[in-house]
Amino acid sequence: MNIELRYLRYFVAVAEELNITRAAERLHTVQPSLGRQIHQLEELVGAPLLQRSGHRLALTKAGRVMLTESRRMLQELDLMFERIRREANAEAGRITVGFFPGGELRVLPRLLPFLRSNYPRIKLVLHSLRGTEQIPSLQNRTIDVGFLRGPVGDDPQLLSEVVLKDKIMAFFPAKHALARQGRISLQKFAQMPMITQTEMETPALNHSLASLEKRAGVKFRSVLETENIFATLSAVGAGMGCSLLPSYVKQLVPSTVVGRRLDINPPPTIDLLLIYRKDDTHKLARFLAAVHNCFQDEQ
After folding, report:
1. What one-character-per-residue DSSP string does 72-107 give?
2. In the chain, domain spans
């Protein structure tokens, strides 16, 4: 049976309106043509789909079945076409990316040149979002992917993977005596006043520092909590204390702050995660491939 797609769309419009005039207006066609299409569909099906009484229409039992199945088929076709369009436009797509503040400096210097060379039609739209903001932004589709420290929760619709591991370094006021040393002893560091970030803002970093305390047998002395890395660096530069931060922060420090490695092996690290929606895996295939290619040596 060769039933054209337009027959189904015409029939659904007539079945929902139960009025040829209104259905013709809805379909932007003329009544005689629409009536012929419905008659041809009935001939193909081999059963009457509409009961006609003057200008009044009603669905037959076969017509009700036809309406249900036609709606289902048209919806499935629309979804199929949408998936095809998304796949076809993946390379040329617009991908909205969320970064925790400062995270762009860790990812973009490698990722952008690779995308320009290999997938020049991909357009990135960047948003600076705290880790706690990225999960809901992914869930409501404000962003397509996020780079964050974690945690990522247990939403089954989200996928996450470790992109790279950053070493944790000590940061001091430039004039501090320990700033002249090549590596910093954790025992000495633990004696200094420390600038930390709130648990709500940086849960992954705070978890790493707690693990480091246990591993080294020390207790850090926090004297000030800030809401972000930039406020932390300002406080360190003002001589209010020292801090332990991911190594990429070296690119952000003012002249009043210096970073030094910790004298402990292996050095403590913190993960940078990539998170995205499971149903966007195909859409993001080329972007994900680019990320894997750029950071495969840091897994």
Report:
1. HHHHHHHHHHHHHHHHHTTTT-EEEEEE-TTTHHHH
2. 5-88, 94-163+271-298, 164-270
Peptide bond into 156 cis (omega under 30): no
The CATH number of domain 94-163+271-298, selected from 3.40.190.10, 3.50.50.60, 3.40.50.2000, 3.40.1180.10? 3.40.190.10
* Alpha-carbon gap, residue 60 to 66, rounded angstroms: 9
Phi, then psi, of 217 in degrees rounded to 5: 70, 40
Residues 272-294: tens digit of each pLDDT: 999 999 999 888 988 999 999 99
For the segment 69-92, what is each residue's pLDDT rounded down to a tens digit?
999 999 998 888 877 766 655 544
Looking at residue 37, its amino acid is Q
d(CA 196, CA 220): 10
